[in-house]
């Protein structure tokens, strides 16, 4: 139990008005928790509070009552026994009477053990202040749910009576009024029967209390109360009817809702919410109808747009609520109002619509019109015949024009309604002469009508319950004129190219044609010749009018729509579409006679192709023909002109056709056919050495193969292998195995390189492309032969071979499938063959075996053969093989790296020992050639960068995640230690080069974390790359890394440490002539550095500013702009000083002249020129 | 006490839409892009008027047409129109433009 002192303290602090609100709230909370936890009963509390509830001091009494009320509000969920509730509600209900204390109430009161003492001492005087507490208390008690103990209905009725008898709502303050309304609402919702039994007094009281109410919160409550009240008195001739007049007078004055002034706190009650509540209140009983509808119609003609929208909304809602019978008598007035609203609001958009885009021509969002249409729809639904007869009888035809076109597009309107509308429209259509079709309005109408008819038909099909037969009136009318309409449109379109037509007109013409052409066939059987006429007209536009972009695009779009419409099923139309459109378009590609630009041709082809499967198949076939015709034109007849076209066609094939086939199921045959065709053709090609075309063919081959399934790849591979083995002298010539005889003279090797004929190279490259693109599971025939072949050719400098070899190794399945070849030929073996031929090369025969001087790729890289060319090729090959290993995360990649690194060391121990063991007599003791070190350094770029040509996701490479990070962390320490060891010679710079490659290709985040260690390497790399033009992209990449470091907090520290050298390096790069982006980025980096701490940057400032003044005169605009920005960023170091100087300079050379006013400068002021 | 503003309520013109140069996609690395009026105005358009929080461009003190540029002879002449007659701030504005240009142009230019 609680000590009395504590409780008194809490009560005291709440009642004391001098305490802060926070303290009061805290004491309320603590009392609440006491009661909640059962430490205090209500009875005990009331006893304790006796003094505060009964004192003569009205302020303290008010606070006391409020405390009890607030406490009850907080305890809404705590179960209380019925006696307590009864006593409390009685207490509060009595307190609603502000003169309560003047009465001698005790006489009639029964005896309650707890409250008698409290209540007995009630004092005198009107008690305004205590009213709030009483209201809150009543509300809290009446809102209680049954599970926590409700107020009994007798008590509730008593409370309601007290409310009616005592409360003068109008005279209270805003908050109290709100509480009153809440209380009333609560009574109506929770105890409707009790309130109803009070009779019309309630309605009277409500009318009285809401009269003149202006507060939005209170109004909101009032609007909610009215529907509830109306429900209580459902009898139309009963007590409510007599109050309808006054009630409407009060409510009607609020419409339309309009806030006279905006107060921030009132934003809680939105205008829309309030307006909606009023709408529900007004429509709550049909009894309002005679007065509400005239009011709304009157307000509809007001000039305020929001009032119009509101009226329309209310009308719509009310007409549903009031019912058709009651609304019937207003129909005439309604229709004319709606008509006015629509016609006035639609006039403007008709003009605006000219600016609409291709994608759809609609009216601007027009709330009034759309609301009016919604209303129209509602009333038509409700009272069909009456309204329609009204509409039909309306003589105001021009208004109907506008109304009906929009109405016509309304799909939800009942069918009969639509039909008769169509009748009217057609009636109107017949009136104007044929010429009228040409003008804008008629065209627009025409299109809308057609669209409406089509939608109507399609929808009725969907509903299936009420389908329309071809004998319906509108169909007959349509049938009677569509042929002439199509003819007219076609002839206009055919001549459009000569005249300057407005875009909108073109749009309507094409759209109408499109709609007519796509009309359901059974309703509008367009004859074949007419349909073909449409198509020919459109195709003619495609062929000729390519200068008019808009027309061309729309025509293409219309064709595509028609295509997808007819493409769905086999019919006469589909056949004529194919014969007229598709074949014409296909012939575009293959015949080079029209003047249509090639890219547009391709666009047309791809769009039309997308309209249907059959079309695409036809197009693909035609495209293939064109591709091969062009390629052989180039390769066989040596026609250089076809090269460009062939390349574009191949690119189109790779970019559009292959993805499309990929998405569509069951079309792999096409891919197979393409590839097989390619292989069949290869034999007849005589290469003219056109590298771009060749690349395009290879890319198409790779993509095609990459998209195929395993089985098809298998077929392709076999085919390819057959062609390869029958053609390539290399494969047959077994003497060329992987091992290169050491004693081979340089001249011989070079000779051999030239030995590969261009045609052989073509075949080989294509074969390599196939190998690159196959899936890992596809089985490669005769692996050993192919491996040898690739090894040989890569040593001749054939890069695709190296890539194919890398791909093979990447995809080699370590746990093989059990096929013979794979069983005896695993990945490890393959690698052995590549690196150490002696162990793996068992079958080696011929001349070379006798020598015993076979060497692997590894040895070749290290220069055992005195042939630099060969060595470079070997390194490139090794890099690709290494990339294949790296991607799959194989251990051997370390060996590859070791070999590459050894290339940098002219006299490393490995090499010397190898030399001694090996054929030292053949290799003169020489320094490594620069080109070898350079290619070794560039090999790191190959290893780390993403390649488009091979070993990527598209070509099914096995890629382990984070391989770049792993390699980076493995290689960088090695490189750095090597750099430390090596003397400042060429090899050192090459090591820097290699490191720069590694840094620029590794992910930025890894580099940034290591930035402190890498800064010197990075800067060195920048200066190395800046030497030549070839490395500009690398330079740019590296620079981006540096700027990335600059933006990172970690990286900034590293930069601050090396500030001097960084700035030196950057200022050196400002004049890099080969790439604008480099200069721009350098300046941006410098500007970013100006934000670093002054102490470090300040000494370098002059240098930066000097460099900037040079950059300000850069030939490129972007660079100059950046330079100006950077210069401004740098100068604030000593703005005051610099500015003083500038001002001094400026004043010396300023002279003010007066100019007479001239016409060129009409403003009445002097022109002042600063002159130097 | 600071004397009242010379032109307390200047006409503020709308800022002209900043034209974005259509960047040609594959520019030749070595083509020289000459300095032109637009580039100049970009440098000086955002200078604030000494007595109003508006930029010179908004007040139409400077316009693109009032700038003569001759890139080959390294010559530029900016004519500006103060908002009111006898604007005491004219020299200051002139100075601002001058300093800004000196800072933003290559040293070969003589600013007039």
From TrEMBL, chain A:
The lineage of its organism: Eukaryota, Viridiplantae, Streptophyta, Embryophyta, Tracheophyta. GO terms for cellular component: cytosolic [4Fe-4S] assembly targeting complex; nucleus. PANTHER family: DNA REPAIR/TRANSCRIPTION PROTEIN MET18/MMS19, MMS19 NUCLEOTIDE EXCISION REPAIR PROTEIN HOMOLOG. It comes from the Eukaryota. GO terms for biological process: DNA repair; iron-sulfur cluster assembly; protein maturation. Signal peptide: none annotated. Belongs to the MET18/MMS19 family. Key component of the cytosolic iron-sulfur protein assembly (CIA) complex, a multiprotein complex that mediates the incorporation of iron-sulfur cluster into apoproteins specifically involved in DNA metabolism and genomic integrity. In the CIA complex, MMS19 acts as an adapter between early-acting CIA components and a subset of cellular target iron-sulfur proteins. Residues 689-1089 form the MMS19 C-terminal domain. Keywords: DNA damage, DNA repair, Nucleus, Repeat. Gene3D superfamilies: Leucine-rich Repeat Variant (1.25.10.10). This is MMS19 nucleotide excision repair protein. Its main location: nucleus. It is found in: Nucleus. InterPro entries: ARM-like (IPR011989), ARM-type_fold (IPR016024), MMS19 (IPR039920), MMS19_C (IPR024687), MMS19_N (IPR029240). Residues 46-97, 125-342 form the MMS19 N-terminal domain.
Automatic annotation (TrEMBL), chain B:
The keyword Transferase does not apply. GO terms for biological process: chromosome segregation; protein maturation. Keywords: Chromosome partition. It comes from the Eukaryota. One of its GO terms (cellular component) is intracellular protein-containing complex. It holds the Pfam family FeS_assembly_P. Residues 43-107 form the MIP18 family-like domain. InterPro entries: FSCA_dom_sf, MIP18, MIP18-like. SUPFAM superfamilies: Fe-S cluster assembly (FSCA) domain-like. Belongs to the MIP18 family. This is MIP18 family-like domain-containing protein.
